[in-house]
Design a protein that fits this description.
single chain, alpha+beta, Jelly Rolls, Rossmann fold, 2 domains, globular
């Protein structure tokens, strides 16, 4: 079998954010945000991937599709390993392989060792063919609904573990497939616009958007995860923001107290709702500054639409203040008892409905 470094594979397309200079110097592609990975078109009979991984209990999971169909879902082995993707397939037939990290970053969720790096590929015969250009590039910013929490496991499961995250079957991936697009995720379960579900203001996702992936673990930081992202290197045609659910959740949780005695509490009051709207508006301005030309879509409602007036208001105010007509509000279908997944989160049917709504909008505005 032939073996090559991941950066030496002809026509391979990396998926997701990473610091290219640091990664190439280390000879490894770090998979940071959920659904980071790579894709190839390959004509050989066997393909293996050389991995390096670590964790302290919140293991990174892997998902592999071949020709659009799921083939593998497995946790990564700690240390260096070789994962066979397939063998004995028909030589000469084209296999479109997509490999994803099926877990969000866990560096801010109690596992600083969490990482998944791709060192290279090993294959039998065949060649790597050019990939078609995607019809569009999409970025999705969000919380557990974007990280795919609840898309694996039985409905009665309540444990917060990586096994029950399945972002490669979430509404962002489904949306991208419907419009033949490439996609990226920037999402952290439990995070919000002004705070996380437990009122921690340090976990407001808009504050973490500009680095490559500041929520990643310690080893990933040495690979440049905390460095500024190169926004010019990958320009999205549309950005979906799905935040606000955890700001509402925080209103029913006791106040957060920081190590320096700081107190923070979101309340279900007109004043607090105005602050959420202001924060959403500020995030839209940041997104426009960093992503000129992208359609900005605030998509909300899968787990209730309590903040719709404020989020829709932020979009309207952004359009009025800037004269920028390329900002939109998209109501998403709300989860029902029939479409619920594990961990009291939307299941596959709800994600499929959300993807249909998002794809329909994209076909109108792109």
């Amino acid at each position: 079998m032939e073996t090559a470094n991941i950066f030496d594979i002809p026509h391979l397309r990396p998926l997701g954010r990473f610091h290219e200079e640091r990664a190439r110097a280390a000879g490894a592609l770090p998979l940071l945000w959920a659904c980071s990975g790579w894709e190839v078109r390959f004509t050989g009979s066997a393909l293996e991937v050389l991995l390096e991984a670590d964790d302290q209990g919140k293991e990174p999971w892997i998902a592999v599709d071949v020709n659009g169909a799921p083939l593998i879902r497995t946790p990564a082995v700690r240390g260096q390993s070789v994962l066979p993707l397939f063998q004995g397939m028909t030589p000469g037939a084209v296999k479109h392989v997509r490999f994803w990290k099926d877990t969000q970053p866990m560096g801010q969720d109690g596992d600083p060792a969490h990482r998944l790096w791709v060192r290279g590929l090993r294959w039998e015969g065949g060649e790597f063919l050019p990939l078609p250009e995607p019809a569009c590039r999409l970025e999705f910013i969000g919380d557990s609904l974007t990280s795919g929490e609840g898309l694996a496991g039985a409905r009665e499961e309540t444990d917060w573990i990586p096994a029950f995250f399945h972002p490669s079957r979430g509404w962002p991936r489904l949306t991208a497939d419907l419009v033949q697009g490439e996609f990226r995720l920037v999402s952290q379960s439990g995070w919000g616009i002004r705070s996380s579900w437990d009122n921690d203001p340090r976990h407001a996702l808009p504050d973490w958007y500009e680095p490559v992936c500041a929520t990643a673990g310690e080893a990933d930081q040495t690979m440049g995860a905390g460095e500024p992202n190169d926004f010019a290197a990958w320009r999205p045609d549309a950005i979906f923001i799905n935040l606000g659910t955890n700001d509402i959740n925080a209103m029913g949780i006791s106040a957060w107290h920081g190590p320096d005695g700081t107190r923070f509490k979101q309340e279900d009051t007109p004043a607090c709702r105005r602050l959420i709207e202001e924060a959403a508006l500020a995030f839209l301005h940041k997104l426009r500054r960093l992503n000129p030309g992208a359609k900005l879509v605030w998509a909300y409602g899968m787990a209730g639409d309590t903040l719709r007036p404020q989020l829709e208001g932020a979009v309207d105010r952004f359009r009025e203040e800037t004269g920028d007509r390329e900002a939109y509000y998209l109501p998403l279908p709300e989860v029902t008892e029939e479409t619920m997944g594990s961990r009291l989160h939307p299941g596959p049917a709800c994600h499929e409905a959300a993807a249909q709504a998002a794809a329909a909008l994209l076909k109108e505005i792109l």
